[in-house]
Design goal:
With 140 residues, this protein is of the alpha+beta class. The chain contains 3 helices and 4 strands. A hairpin with a 6-residue loop joins strand 1 and strand 2.
């Protein structure tokens, strides 16, 4: 069905305006992978990435501008925790953000009851860093 220009404009105007936020669709998925080229300000793409430590990662970017072609290494590091999560790793030391109300967190944890939970995505935790069988001494 063909619409006149006036009908097309009226149909377009009748549709509610969608507010765009960074939390819609695929836009959020790629937000963290964007980096401007330091030389020409064009978008750069990730070529490879590797973990340096549990809290640091090195990422190699390449400029999409064929006339520039700059390739550079970006080092990203976790700087603070906004929420320590339910399965903290005592071997990893990351500072807790100062916005966290530690006094309230202690009260909640001290007074919270316990309920059964079967972990699906996290390795079981014994609650003791040194739990398990003692190492067998070498007698030779």
């Amino acid at each position: 069905m063909m619409h006149t220009d006036a009908e097309h404009q009226a149909l377009h105007a009748a549709q509610p305006a969608r507010s765009r936020t960074s939390h819609q669709g695929k836009r959020l998925r790629y937000e963290g992978t964007r980096m401007a080229c330091p030389m020409c300000d064009a978008q750069s793409e990730i070529r490879t990435s590797a973990a340096v430590t549990k809290t640091m990662r090195e990422t190699i970017y390449q400029c999409t501008n064929v006339e520039c072609g700059c390739t550079f290494v970006f080092t990203g590091e976790i700087s603070r925790l906004l929420n320590p999560g339910a399965t903290p790793n005592p071997a990893v030391s990351i500072p807790l953000s100062n916005h966290v109300r530690r006094d309230l967190m202690r009260v909640v944890l001290d007074n919270a009851g316990q309920a059964e939970h079967q972990a699906r995505y996290t390795a079981p935790v014994t609650g003791d860093l040194f739990a398990g069988a003692a190492p067998v001494p070498n007698t030779t």
